[in-house]
Amino acid sequence: MSLCRLDGNADMYGLGIRLGFYLQWLARIVADLLLVCSTCDCNQKAMLTEVEGGRTALQCFVVASFIAIISQVDTGSATVVDLYISLLICFGDYFFFIPTYIWRLASGFNPLLDPTRWLVAAPSASYSFLDQLLVVASAAFQIWFWAWKVPKDVPPDCETFGFLFSKLSMKSLGFRTANIVIQALIMIIALTAIAMPYVLKRGESTDGPGKVPRHKRRRMQTLGILVSACIFSTMVVGIELAVFWNGLRGIYIINSTGQLIPFVIGVLALVRIVYKYIWASKEEADGRAIPFVSSPFAISTLTRKRP
Fold first, then answer.
1. pLDDT tens profile 90-106
2. How many CA atoms within 13 Å lie on the side-chain side of 134?
3. CB of 115 closer than 8 Å to CB of 103
4. What are the contacts of 205-212 at 24+ separation with CB within 8 A?
5. Are the C-beta atoms of 20 and 268 separated by less than 8 Å?
6. Does residue 165 fall inside a structural domain?
7. What pLDDT was estimated at residue 303?
8. What is the extent of the structural domain holding 73?
9. How many domains does the chain have?
10. In a domain? residue 155
11. pLDDT class of 292 with cuts at 50, 70, 90
């Protein structure tokens, strides 16, 4: 069976949209790294703000993209390959829930052996709850996608491929079954995470960052950043290989406003993080007011008095 070269859906996963996601992922990793490496309070405050803001912005991108995916299914205007690549961009990093929790079980949930539990900037309880709800919704959608949508709508005369650490046919029963099992496990993990605060007794917790020396905490946070970088690299490679393997056309140029906006936002997110870090350090050194962009629409001045 031959590979059919199809026109890709640039509005769902064009170059600008993919780069926008990649740059926001990278910006979060850079912000975490600068936060761990910073030694002055002003840097830490600036980076904490950027980590929280970047996390929220990326989540808004994911939610908007998920709504677009659902609407495309409803109108029938997207192919199975279009939906698959869009889902991989939005939710592919959740695949790493499974090895993460396998490791936690193997290590007896010991935080000193688990770098993924030492977040540089921990999200709020409300953010975590909403994020887990999104995981459950996306996992349920993808179970339906692999169990019903792919067998029904995959092109019968064209070969289509997906990424699962190798090149696999989307028509393969094994590949579809593996994705269904993975999404079911992800859903179970997310539901467990939602229920856990209600199951644990009030005040019950594991050893946290405050109970270990600072140098050990930083070492674990650095390892966590390396894990995030590995996940980021794997996801970029997987998405780009899926695009390449399916011979999609028209998605390697930025030729629309819908692609340009995510790309520009991603670039500005990365530039802003470096800018805030450099100027916060300079302010700490000389004690003078340093201007910084507090929003896309205003210029503010941060004034810090030296003792």
1. 998 888 878 888 888 88
2. 19
3. no
4. 206/109, 206/111, 207/111, 207/112, 208/111, 209/118, 212/112
5. no
6. no
7. 36
8. 15-131+214-284
9. 1
10. no
11. very low
